[in-house]
Amino acid sequence: MWNVDPWLSLGVFLSTAATDAVYVMFNAAVSARRRVPAATWSSVWYLLSAFAVISYTKNWVYVIFAASGSWVGAFLSMTLLRRSSSPVDLDRRQAN
C-alpha cells in the first residue's frame, strides 16, 4: 500500500498542477464570456485530469500528490492572472 513510485508521484503532482491551472483559465474564459477559449480550456482540463485519476485510483496514497499539485496549480495560475491584470485593465473592466 505504501509502495510509492517517485516518478509516478511527480507525474501525478505535475498533472494535477497543470489541471488546476487549466481549470482556472477555463473559469476566467467563462467569466469573460469567451466561448472558444472556454471550450478549449475545458477539453484540455479533462485530458490532463485523466492521467491523475487513472494513476491514483490504483493506490490512494497518490491522492496526496494530486491534492498538492492541484493547490499549486491553482495558486500559480491565479498569481499569473493577477499579474496580467494591470491597473489600467482593471479600470477598463470596471467601466464596462
Keywords, separated by commas or semicolons:
0% strand; mainly alpha; 96 residues; 4 helices
Question: How would you describe what is shown here?
Answer:
The protein has one domain (6-95). Helices cover 83% and strands 0% of the residues. It has four helices and no strands. The longest helix is centred in the N-terminal third of the chain and has 26 residues, at 6-31. The model has no long low-confidence stretch (mean pLDDT 76).
Secondary structure layout plus pairing:
Blueprint lengths: L5 H26 L3 H22 L5 H23 L2 H9 L1
Helix pairs in contact: 1-2, 1-3
Strand content: under 5%
Helices, by number, come to: 4
- Which spans have pLDDT < 50 for at least 5 consecutive residues? none
> Based on CA inertia axes, which overall geometry fits?
elongated
Level of helix content?
A: over 70%
Total beta-strand segments: 0
Q: Radius of gyration from the CA trace?
A: 16 Å
Main sheet, how many strands, which sense, barrel? none
In total, the number of domains comes to 1
Distance between the terminal alpha carbons, to the nearest Å? Answer: 55 Å
Overall pLDDT, averaged? 76
- Strand-and-helix sequence, N→C? HHHH
Structural class: mainly alpha
